[in-house]
Amino acid sequence: MNCRPGCGACCIAPSISSPIPGMPSGKPAGVRCLHLSDANLCGLFGNPARPAVCAEFQADVMFCGDDRQDAIRLLGWLEQATGSSNEQHVV
């Protein structure tokens, strides 16, 4: 599966614990990454400063579902189910 242009769910739903340019503490789950454009495209794509966790993410129907709303819901559920975040977020 290829990423859906303009989805951006992987830049919103999960937490990122590694530093991101402009976000030295990473980002909590449910918060838009600073580098996610208004068109939901990654502003760091192809940039070596992009966190490894972002570069390694592979779109898969299991995580991304059938559309953007599915992806937000599934990635949010996965975040909570794996205990990746100490905060509870409604996605």
From TrEMBL:
InterPro entries: Puta_zinc/iron-chelating_dom, UPF0153_domain. It holds the Pfam family CxxCxxCC. It comes from the Bacteria. PANTHER family: UPF0153 PROTEIN YEIW. This is YkgJ family cysteine cluster protein.
